[in-house]
Amino acid sequence: MQRMRPIFLILAIWGAIHPMWYFLRWFGENGFDLAAMVEAWHANAASSGLVWDLTIAAVALTVWVLDDTLRTRYWPGLLAIPATFCIGVSCGLPLYLFLRLRPKGGAAPVA
User: Fold this and answer.
1) What's the pLDDT tens digit per position in 5-21?
2) How many structural domains does the chain have?
3) What share of the chain is helix, strand, coil (3-state, %, to 5)?
4) Domain limits at 24?
5) What does the pLDDT look like over 54-74, one tens digit per residue?
6) How many CA atoms lie within 13 A of 40 on its CB side?
7) Alpha carbons 33 and 20: distance in angstroms, whole number
8) If I label 68, which of 7, 45, 75, 110 is the partner at 20 to 30 A Cα–Cα?
9) Is 107 a member of any domain?
10) If you write DSSP's letter for every residue of 55-80 in order, what string do you get?
């Protein structure tokens, strides 16, 4: 699994930059109005479904990160939670996998 670590880092970076580009573009066109952005996310049933899909995935990831962090006592893994809710699941999930697969010697215990 160590060979996957750089891939997860690349995906975390991509997952931070690519969605943020769209958010910043939207804010540039509409001003920094979070309420309007949330309203835009629910413009139709398809986008509402996607919002709920990502929200549920974010909550599931958070529960997993909390459980795994409490079990392994590897506290840097908690960085995935703000990454998930401030950027998105596209950053938070690969970031957590990158952090979780740290090199041997600092490896998290496997339960």
Assistant:
1) 999 999 999 999 999 99
2) 1
3) 80, 0, 20
4) 2-100
5) 999 999 999 999 999 999 999
6) 11
7) 15
8) 7
9) no
10) HHHHHHHHHHHHHHHHHH--GGGGGH
